Amino acid sequence: MNRAAFLDRDGVINRKAPEGRYVTRWEQMRLLPGVASAIAGLRQAGFRVIVVSNQRCVAKGLVTAAGMDAIHRQMRAELAAAGGAIDAVYYCPHEKLPPCGCRKPAPGMLFAAAREHRIDLAASWMIGDSDVDMSAGRSAGCKTAMLTDKRAAFGADVVAGSLLEAVAKIVDCDASLRSGCEVARKSERRRPMEPRALEAMGKAKHR
Ligand SMILES: [Mg+2]
Ligand SMILES: [Zn+2]
Questions:
Q1: How far is the CA of 207 from the centre of ligand 1 (A)?
Q2: Which of 31, 160, 185, 187 is the most exposed place for a label (fewest CB within 10 A)?
Q3: Secondary structure (3-state) at 147
């Protein structure tokens, strides 16, 4: 069985478009700093890296499924070239209504990925920047990491300001899990991250 880090896309990998707007062309995609290194860190820690994204702009007709696939191909190529290869991208192209099984907070994309990549969901993490990501992760039985600069954590197991920081905490958490320490001790003050150590970890892959 494999372990996965499920990554939300907008607000985690790339800068979120303003409310009510969508990334419908590659030119609008702004990758966030440190993302390739963070993904490299997850891979080194033994996680499959799988993107799970709500993209109802497809249902709205703002971009075709082929257009969305092209954006994701380019995103993956760019990140892979920087050491952060993504194993798979799942997205929900549907509108909010009628409800589908894949649009987060439903856990459908995580279940599909688990089947297709033989993933142990209980040993996996969902990393996102919204409450629906945390709900989807929890419903699938994963641990959750919330990226936010505010206090709202939506019950996440880990709270961080960036993907790089979240990965540092997850890797730390994971190491302590193996020696019997509980991730659920949310109140526990965690060691501050060392972004430089993590950067080095990401770069180590190229050496
Ligand atoms: Mg998001
Ligand atoms: Zn859907």
A1: 32
A2: 187
A3: strand
Q: Which ligand is nearest to the CA of 15?
A: 1
Instruction: Look up the domain containing 41 and give its range.
Output: 3-204
The partner residues of 92 in beta bridges, in order of sequence, read 54
Q: 188-207, pLDDT tens digit by residue? A: 444 444 445 445 444 444 43
Tell me if 159 sits within 8 A of 145, measured CB to CB: yes
Q: Work out how many domains the chain is built from and give that number.
A: 1
CA of 186 to the centre of ligand 1 (A): 22
What pTM does this model have?
A: 0.85
The rounded Å distance from CA 44 to ligand 2 centre is 31
| Cα–Cα distance list, 173 to 91, 129, 158, 159 (Å) | 28, 19, 9, 12
Question: b or e along 135-148 (b: 16 or more beta carbons within 10 Å of the residue's beta carbon)?
Answer: bbbbbbbbbbbbbb
Q: What is the pLDDT of residues 99-126, one digit of tens each?
A: 999 999 999 999 999 999 999 999 999 9
Mean pLDDT over 53-65 rounds to 97
**CB count in 10 Å sphere of residue 1:** 11
CATH number at residue 82: 3.40.50.1000
- Better-scored residue on pLDDT, 174 or 14: 14
Catalytic residues, by residue number, are: 8, 10
